[in-house]
Amino acid sequence: MTEVGTTTLRHNPLNAVTASVERVTYADGRTAVRKELRRPSDTSGPWAASTDPRHWNYWRREVEVYRDDELREQLADAGLILPAAEVDERPDGAVLLMDDIAGTPGTHFSLAEHAALARACGRWQARPASERPWTSTGFLRDYSTTRDVPWHLMTDDSAWQQPLIRATWPAELREAWTGLLVHRDALLDLVATLPRARCHLDFWVSNVIQRPTGELALFDWSFLGDGALGEDIGNYIPDAVFDLFWPAERMPELAETCIANYLDGLHEASWRGDPDQVRLAVMASGVKYAWLLPGLLGRASDTTHNAYHRQVDSRYLFHQRGQALLFVADWCAEALSRARR
Predict the structure, then answer these.
(1) CATH of the domain at 280
(2) 3-class state of residue 187 by DSSP
């Protein structure tokens, strides 16, 4: 079929697996989304691709996901869509040609739409998943501890005295984040002991679209694998705020709505576990973002700042992220406190 145009779609350009993501327009007016995956050529750096099927950044994982009919059926039963895709494997990688799903992107969701997604996620993850040799293991620890991070800035008074930081971050954030870092291993250990599920592991607003008929399509399955029951929700809530798709002032409302609906979805699918352990996973999985605050300290004096590849007002961005970081730090502290009871 003749192509008449392409448009590059937003994606993480640092990830060595992804060569490109673009919308393709054909001569008859139809469109599709084309994602090109690269076979690893360099195994260095925090976003390096891997040939290990259990690694969080295994380069072929999405090839396997889109060919997995059982996963597709399980998602559909829960009200979730895995877009149809053609897979073209090549010597240097693979190309996915996926349905171009029309609807409301998660970046524009109302509270009710966030709730619907969390509920559907609960219905999906309540059911046991068949073993697959290509799903990731140890994602939370491996991903969060391999970032390139200026940790020394946490104890650098001059970094904390930067005008943008002083003007926008809560006074108690430094102490709260220091506490999170002190207990980082304990938080990672806690999440690893909690009930398990097959998780998306990149579950956030930019990876979902709701069709007008209500079904929710999920994208970017690069990290799919073992996680704690609730870990995806623990990723979804902070990410929405960090990239300015939900106001920090309403973060507690989003959190309680998503957690309550996720638990309702679990129960709808006949799950009968301990909801307190799910809440623990949601809160403690905030340790994933341990690297984020030092990274922001390192960029606070830049002349411009971006949120998910778009330039935004620096004061607003740092204010929103400062509030969200304090929320995450408090979550992690509360998780440790509950786990000790």
Answers:
(1) 3.90.1200.10
(2) helix
Report yes or no on 77 lying in a domain.
Answer: no
Tokens matching residue 23: 């919308």
Whole-angstrom distance, CA of residue 211 vs CA of residue 105: 9
Q: Decide: residue 272, CB within 10 A, 0-12 exposed, 13-18 middle, 19+ buried.
A: exposed
Residue 304 lies in a domain: yes
Rounded distance between C-alpha atoms, residue 65 and residue 224, angstroms: 8
Q: Pseudo-torsion of CA 254, 259, 265, 271, nearest 10°?
A: 180
pLDDT in tens, 85-106: 999 999 999 999 999 999 999 9
- Closest-CA residue to 282 (of 229, 242, 337): 229
Asked if residues 102 and 211 have their Cβ atoms less than 8 Å apart, the reply is yes
| Residue ranges making up the domain that contains 207 | 103-341
Which residue from 273, 266, 240, 274 is spatially nearest to 254, judged by alpha carbons? 240
What DSSP element (H or E) covers 261? helix 251-268
* Structural domain count of the chain: 1
197-221: pLDDT as tens digits: 999 999 999 999 999 999 999 999 9
pTM of the entire structure?
0.96
What's the CA gap between 287 and 53, in Å, rounded?
24
**Nearest Cα to Cα of residue 165 among 326, 329, 319, 330:** 319
Please answer whether residues 281 and 263 qualify as being in contact, where contact means their C-beta atoms are separated by less than 8 angstroms: no
Q: Is residue 72 part of a domain?
A: no
Judge whether 298 lies within some domain: yes
